[in-house]
Amino acid sequence: MNRENKTIKLRCISFPKGTKVVSVCLDLYLVAETSTLEDSKRKLIDAIVLYVSHAIDKNEIKELIPRKAPLKYFFKYYLIKLVTSIFKKAYTILNSNYRPDCYEFPVNSAEGTPLFG
C-alpha cells in the first residue's frame, strides 16, 4: 500500500471551564476535559493519535481530515492568540491550570502520530 507522507498542523486550544480545563483540536473537532492543563493536553493528544490512526487504517483520510470544530472555537482560538501575544508577561504569572493557551501539533499522516521535536 502506497501511503502519502504528509505533515499537517492541527490547531488546538485549552481554556478553563469552571473547575475543569477543556482542550479542543479545531481541525479534527476532538475535545478533552480534565482537572489540569497537562492532563487535558495529554488526553487530547491521545484522541488525536487514535483518530488519525483510524483514518489511516480505514483509508479515509480525505473523508475524516479535516473535521472542523464549530466557528465559536476558531473565534476563541484567535482571540486567545491575540490576547496572549499582547499580554504575554501577564499570562506567565497566571496559574497554568487556568491560563488559556493556543498551540499546534504537527502530525505526520503516514504514521498518524504527533511529531514533537
Would you kindly provide a brief summary of this structure?
The protein has 117 residues and is α+β, with helices and mostly antiparallel strands. The chain contains four helices and five strands, in the order βββααααββ.
Please, could you describe this protein's structure?
It is a single chain. Helix content is 40%, strand content 27%. It has one domain. The chain has four helices and five strands. It is an alpha+beta fold and 117 residues long. A five-stranded antiparallel β-sheet has the order 3-2-1-4-5. It has helices at 37-57, 61-64, 71-86, 88-93; strands at 7-17, 20-25, 30-34, 101-108, 113-114.
The largest sheet is:
5 strands, antiparallel
- Amino-to-carboxy terminus distance: 28 Å
Summed up, the domain count is: 1
Radius of gyration: 15 Å
- Assign a percent range to the helix content: 40-55%
* Number of distinct beta strands: 5
Alpha plus pi helix count: 4
Q: Strand-and-helix sequence, N→C?
A: EEEHHHHEE
- Unreliable stretches covering 5 or more consecutive residues: none
Strand content: 25-35%
Average of per-residue pLDDT values: 80
Topology summary:
Layout: E1 7-17, E2 20-25, E3 30-34, H1 37-57, H2 61-64, H3 71-86, H4 88-93, E4 101-108, E5 113-114
Antiparallel strand pairs: 1-2, 1-4, 2-3, 4-5
Annotation keywords:
117 residues, alpha+beta, 5-stranded antiparallel β-sheet, 5 strands
